[in-house]
Amino acid sequence: MESAVEESVQRITSANRVLALANGLSAPLASDLAMRLTAIGRPTEFVSDPIGQQISARQLRSADACVVISGSGANESSIKAARSARAANAVLVVVTSFASSPLVSLADIALVVAPAHGYFRHELEYTSRVPHAVLIESLVEIVSGRLGEASRSA
User: Is the CA virtual torsion 117, 120, 126, 128 positive or negative?
Assistant: First the structure.
């Protein structure tokens, strides 16, 4: 996972455009990621509407990055947005709880944070996004360090 985190940081830091997407219970995490990255000088967009996500992701380019957050990795709206990012040749970073999820199969970089109880049904019944929030906080902190003075002045 350390190499995946490092590659994610590098891609997010160097991308021309960054788009953060999620649906359902993961949506607040994508919004938080976008706000935090923007606050440290790495402008990041968040689109809440599922159709708008697909449109925005399709307009990305190969020098851009799209971060899709989905606890289950199986949210259909998130999968559609991820496919749009793939079609645009953007780098696709996925944050999820299941390594065998459909989103991971689409990802260039998968950041898999195992759920507390390790099975899909529990993910649906007793969802917690705390592990994902901790990962996102860490990503932002590392990106901030990489941006150096630009981050401090932002």
Answer: positive
Answer yes or no: are the C-beta atoms of 22 and 52 closer than 8 Å.
no
Write out the H or E segment, with its range, that includes residue 78.
helix 76-87
The pLDDT value given to residue 24 = 93
How many other β-carbons are positioned within 10 Å of the β-carbon of residue 66?
29
What's the domain count of the chain? 1
SS3 106: helix
Residue 152 resides in a domain: no
Q: What string of DSSP letters covers 25-63?
A: GGHHHHHHHHHHHHHTT--EEE--SHHHHHHHHHT--TT
Averages of pLDDT over runs of 10 residues in the chain (154 residues) are 93 98 96 97 98 98 98 96 98 95 98 71 62 93 93 85
Is 133 contained in some domain?
yes
Q: Are 116 and 134 within 8 A, CB to CB?
A: no
Two tokens, residue 111: 């950041």
For tokens 């996004």, the residue is 129
